[in-house]
Amino acid sequence: MWLKPEEVLLKNALKLWLMERSNDYFVLQRRRGYGEEGGGGLTGLLVGTLDSVLDSTAKVAPFRILHQTPDSQVYLSIACGANREEITKHWDWLEQNIMKTLSVFDSNEDITNFVQGKIRGLIAEEGKHSFAKEDDPEKFREALLKFEKSFGLPEQEKLVTYYSCSYWKGRVPCQGWLYLSTNFLSFYSFLLGSEIKLIISWDAVSKLEKTSNVILTESIHVCSQGEDYYFSMFLHTNQTYLLMEQLANYAVRRLFDKETFDNDPILDDPLQITKRGLENRAHSEQFIAFFRLPKEETLKEVHECFLWVPFSHFNTHGKMCISENYICFASQDGSLCSVIIPLREVLAADKTDDSSQSVIISIKGKTAFRFSEVKDSEQLIAKLRLKCGTASSQCDISTEVAITSDSTGPSDNFEVQSLTCQKECSKAVNTEALMTVFHPQNLETLNSKMLKEKMKEQSWNILFSECGRGVTMFRTRKTRHLVVRGIPETLRGELWMLFSGAVNDMATNPGYYAEVVEKSLGTCNLATEEIERDLRRSLPEHPAFQSDTGISALRRVLTAYAYRNPKIGYCQAMNILTSVLLLYAKEEEAFWLLVAVCERMLPDYFNRRIIGALVDQAVFEELIRDHLPQLTEHMTDMTFFSSVSLSWFLTLFISVLPIESAVNVVDCFFYDGIKAILQLGLAILDYNLDKLLTCKDDAEAVTALNRFFDNVTNKDSPLPSSVRQGSNESDEKSSHIKVDITDLIRESNEKYGNIRYEDIYSMRCQNRLYVIQTLEETTKQNVLRVVSQDVKLKLHELDELYVIFKKELFLSCYWCLSCPVLKHHDPSLPYLEQYQIDCQQFRMLYHLLSPWAHSANKDSLALWTFRLLDENSDCLINFKEFSSAIDIMYNGSFTEKLKLLFKLHIPPAYTEVKSKDSSKGDELSMEELLYFSQLHGKGKIDIQAYLSQWQDELLKKEENIKDLPRMNQSQFIQFSKTLYNLFHEDPEEEALYQAIAIVTSLLLRMEEVGRKLHSPTSSAKAVPGIVCASGGPNERKTESHLEKNSSSLREEPQWSFAFEQILASLLNEPAVVRFFEKPIDLKVKLENAKTSQLRSRTKM
């Protein structure tokens, strides 16, 4: 590798480097200890340790070339090499291309400048594509060299970043280097002759956390397949941890959770992943989640600045975040003040005349925002003007509507946009919230509750006059305070749209809902059937859903969403949530609210495995441990909280609380996201803490919580008694204390409001690994339970076999951008069908695990075994099929093993195999292997004839159902060859060859006699029966003898052999019986397979 020319003082290096070659201008050196017998003794050992500790390139590149000028002690290092071949190549290049030119220069300085320029040019050309995105390309090149040399992984394995750190082996820290690549976490250390090399695949990581104790002040704990690894002494622990977390989550999603990965094209190509890219992605995700923006947005710029808050008359310090279509601002304390400005609303971006570096953003509705102390404000204004010009041309329709927002309110802004489409739609779409239709507020009968409701409305109107109304309103602590009190019935739909971000989705997709409704009408699939079944189970006691109006609206919204997002389709709990949305929002708004909930606010909740809900339950358990330790001490099993809280998360408490109380929870959820649900869950457990601590079992605890939910009321709810689900006022004399939902929510904010968004985001990422690995473990246990009933393999052997099987599947996907195997992975399939391997992967496993893998025709045997197991001809086999073959090879009786070999040499397993490249012998290329695996009887072999023959045999001998089709002449020759290959290098090799020669000769004679008896007039010639019956070199004569006669036999009626004939003949040969019945240690084979599985793909 060419190096950036750097000065080296040769005098200090002489003891560490040995001269190999030299001329007037260059020196080739070798590191002391490398290539010497015994590693160069103590000196070599110390040099190796020094290289490792000081991170010397010499550790992985023990050769180097220096440029020298006469009469100077200063040398320049210009190249290094991992081996002699590499460095010699560089040396030869210098001699051929540089040496001749140097003689024309007059001064040493000119020579040095020329050499430096030439080497830099070579480096620039070499790294034009690979290292352009790295912060320090030169250092990264060196790190990449060390990574490749130390671990020998394929070139496609992309190194993302590297860190110096300590790995704790017991209580001893080992200083070395941690390399983070797309598929592996790797660590290398070399101290005093002790080399430590770790390679942990990200998909095997089940736990990743930051820890600290007395010895380790701050370390990163990695748990993989039950093993614990601790790494410490990082310069930036948080940065390292976040990158590790992202890479682990990326691998897990790519391999286990294809459902969500398909929706994320950014990470589709592992070769494009960089450290900077991952950091930017993490910031974008947090930015989108905090401001509830469409998931297509990416964070482009962040500027520290001050925003003028007009109603408070002060500048608040914070960050301005800019994406493709939005300008957002959040104060340093996020809850103090935040603003979202869609570029579609911006009319102009200007600067002020003073020196405050201010940016004025003018929006529709005669409002302006002033950002001051903005760095590079002029550049920012130019970019915003460019963006606004583009944005305004795309959103002409919304311009006219938004200007009228002062008088009509933002909730009416969308009617014009979708009006045309709705008129064209064949089915009417409700343009009113169901609550206004079924429970219009009667202003003439103002009772105390209605007065309170009007006072709430007035409070919000005052807030609107101060902070603005609509998508660009200021969100402040006062906003949160009003949300906690409960949003007024008349404003609920509008504010849900605003706080959820659904207002932006709807504004940028005018007419989309009406279009989807029309397309989805009349569709019939599993989702629509489930929707129809659940329609009348959604708030059945509410009048709105006892009428066709409500039911039809619910049907349209759910069917439209299932059509929009077929990967989710329809899941239970979506009907309950949507019915509540329809009560307070117009139909189209309810649809976009459902989109916001399912796709942004509760990611992965509404799919078949409800991974998102399980992740948030794990987060909830973690928060219980932190905030309610006495409860976790009392509850021996934390899974109780998971089982009891699942419905809380899936339905946002709607299924457990009365509707009039549940809507207040939904208010907080749309404002604060999942944080509100977690806080409320903690508050409920805290409120019932004393009761739960006295409960003796889970059932008693569930009863106590249900009784509590029954007594939650909303004393301020203006809903009529016919709709309310809570306890009636007449029940007040009951012994149970009523709890007001507003007080409960207020208490949850006061006690647990310090839980930060960032912490929840981090805990979600951390627990996602644990949840998915737990689901994978469940899948494995179910597969093993099913398979163990049909095989003789022990459970621990099956467990190890499954790990190797799955690892092989993933290894083939690591470096393949569009791996076809991953496309077949579907977690919703039955457990056995979730992971299936193709022929190439099966061949690798066959070579690693089969006791017959030493055979010269092992590729053909692997192919035929695969074809035999692939009964449905889809070119994939599952673990049950795979383990059944391994089980016979190791635990089968003589008859079972022979039967397997017999079946491998008759269709549908058998197909004639011949490699195109004769120099490779019996070895098959990947393309040939895949071609032959897909043949399934095409060409010379007539499978139908064999099937009918097999059927005839079965019908003739019904008493023996295990009869197999007969084996023809060419198949028998191949069968004999396979036996010869299997017996090669066996201790009893000669006796086995002799036995096979006797058996083949006997069978051929028997067939000849039998054929003469059946056809006495036949003039066929008898096959010479003298077959060489000695082992060793004569075995090849036997094979050639069989092949020579095969051509003459093909001209006559085909010979065929029944399985019983072959079995009976071989049973008379003790050497053959001993060979197939001798025990083989599967444990050793499994251990070797595990260690060599990755190594077989590396250069090590």
From TrEMBL:
Residues 857-892 form the EF-hand domain. Interacts (via domain Rab-GAP TBC) with RAB11B (in GTP-bound form). SMART domains: GRAM, TBC. This is TBC1 domain family member 8B. SUPFAM superfamilies: EF-hand, Ypt/Rab-GAP domain of gyp1p. PANTHER family: PROTEIN VASCULAR ASSOCIATED DEATH 1, CHLOROPLASTIC, TBC1 DOMAIN FAMILY MEMBER 8B. Involved in vesicular recycling, probably as a RAB11B GTPase-activating protein. One of its GO terms (biological process) is glomerular filtration. The gene is Tbc1d8b. It comes from Heterocephalus glaber (Naked mole rat). One of its GO terms (cellular component) is cytosol.
